[in-house]
Design goal:
Layout: E1 4-5, H1 8-28, E2 34-40, H2 44-59, E3 63-69, H3 75-87, E4 93-96, H4 106-112, H5 124-131, H6 140-151, E5 160-164, H7 171-179, E6 188-192, H8 199-203, E7 208-211, E8 229-232, E9 236-239, E10 247-250, H9 255-258, E11 264-265, H10 272-290
Parallel strand pairs: 1-11, 2-3, 2-4, 5-6, 5-7, 7-8, 8-11
Antiparallel strand pairs: 9-10
Helix pairs in contact: 1-10, 6-7, 6-10
This protein binds NADP nicotinamide-adenine-dinucleotide phosphate (NAP).
NADP nicotinamide-adenine-dinucleotide phosphate (NAP) is lined by residues 141, 164-167, 169-171, 192-196, 199, 212-215, 218, 233-236, 272-273, 276.
Length: 293
């Protein structure tokens, strides 16, 4: 079997088309959703992510700004900036690019953002509401993964979903979303991590397998059953002298091997990545809509 490709670019494009109607309705009321991105320091990967977020906002008609602070900025100054953005009615969404430089508490910074402007869905209020199954800003990557499954018709309902990785931004929230008694969810869920014994025993029983370990080849063909649906979240740089940039990006899954057995699989790049940004824009539009009520 050769797996069907789950195309994140195509689904993201669908989402942008849907957002245009909501943007037009907001525009008729004089509102342009605005995302403020705060970048502290000069981490090269963060620079790329922030640029992509800003460019995508501009492309689809959202307002966006990137506020850059040097790495040695005191935490108090970051908190004060967030306070100003919280109070600015023109700003609908606030995102602080992670990781933060040493000496700045990620927890204090995230908690400083008003939950109703927390379009990354990282504030404890949004995390708590997610666990309780209440309305909230869903974290963008897990929300994008759920959309991919839903829009390709791979329902998690009554299925066994195995998630490899328990980070607070990907693995754990996705696992929680899948176990909720809701549409596009209601699965039986197993969460695996570095403390898991015999990882393959778990992954082989998955109907839907999520790899979010941040390690290439965490999942190989012998670790999956025929017909599994695979969501590969990993983004890993590997040296490749034949590539223009000297490296290429691969996921956490051995794509060549696993795609011989899987029913469907996300590619890296072009799978989960484009969905993360699409969900960020969707959350920002929603924050702007909520600001009217
Ligand atoms: P992370 O914080 O490093 O978490 C990795 C998780 O995987 C941890 O829970 C870790 O277990 C577990 N793990 C690592 N190696 C394992 C192994 N061999 N067997 C079982 N579990 C293992 O990473 P993250 O932030 O969740 O990101 C995961 C990957 O997704 C990264 O490659 C990242 O770049 C990518 N990512 C992509 C997007 C996107 O938009 N495409 C967004 C976010 C992240 P412990 O908890 O025991 O350490």
């Amino acid at each position: 079997m050769q797996a069907k490709l789950i195309d994140g670019k195509e689904i993201a494009a669908q989402i942008y088309t849907e957002l245009q109607m909501r943007l037009a309705a907001l525009s008729a009321k004089g509102i342009i959703p605005h995302l403020s991105v705060v970048l502290v320091g000069d981490d090269p990967a963060s620079q790329v992510y922030v640029r992509t977020k800003q460019k995508t906002c501009e492309k689809y008609g959202l307002g966006s700004e990137t506020l850059r602070l040097p790495a040695e900025t005191p935490e108090k100054q970051v908190l004060d900036l967030l306070d100003k953005l919280n109070k600015n009615p023109q700003v609908h969404g606030i995102l602080v690019q992670l990781p933060l430089p040493k000496g700045i508490s990620t927890q204090r910074v995230i908690e400083q953002i008003l939950p109703e402007k927390d379009v990354d869905g990282f504030h404890p209020i949004n995390r708590g509401r997610l666990v309780a199954g209440q309305d909230c800003f869903l974290p963008c990557t897990p929300a994008g993964m759920q959309q991919l499954l839903a829009r390709y018709g791979y329902s998690p309902e009554n299925k066994h979903v195995v998630v490899v990785g328990r980070s607070l931004i990907v693995g754990l929230p996705f696992a929680i979303m899948m176990v909720l008694k809701k549409e596009h969810a209601n699965a039986t869920v197993t969460i695996c991590h570095t403390g898991t014994k015999n990882l393959a025993d778990h992954t082989r029983s998955a109907d839907i397998l999520v790899a979010a370990s941040g390690r290439p080849n965490t999942i190989t063909a012998d670790m999956v059953r025929e017909g599994v649906v695979v969501i590969d979240v990993g983004v890993n740089r590997v040296e490749d002298p034949s590539a223009e940039r000297g490296y290429r990006l691969i996921g956490d899954v051995d794509f060549a091997g696993v795609s011989q057995k899987a029913a469907a699989i996300t590619p890296v790049p072009g799978g989960v990545g484009p969905m993360t940004i699409a969900m960020l824009l969707m959350n920002t539009v929603r924050a702007a809509e909520n600001s009217l009520t």
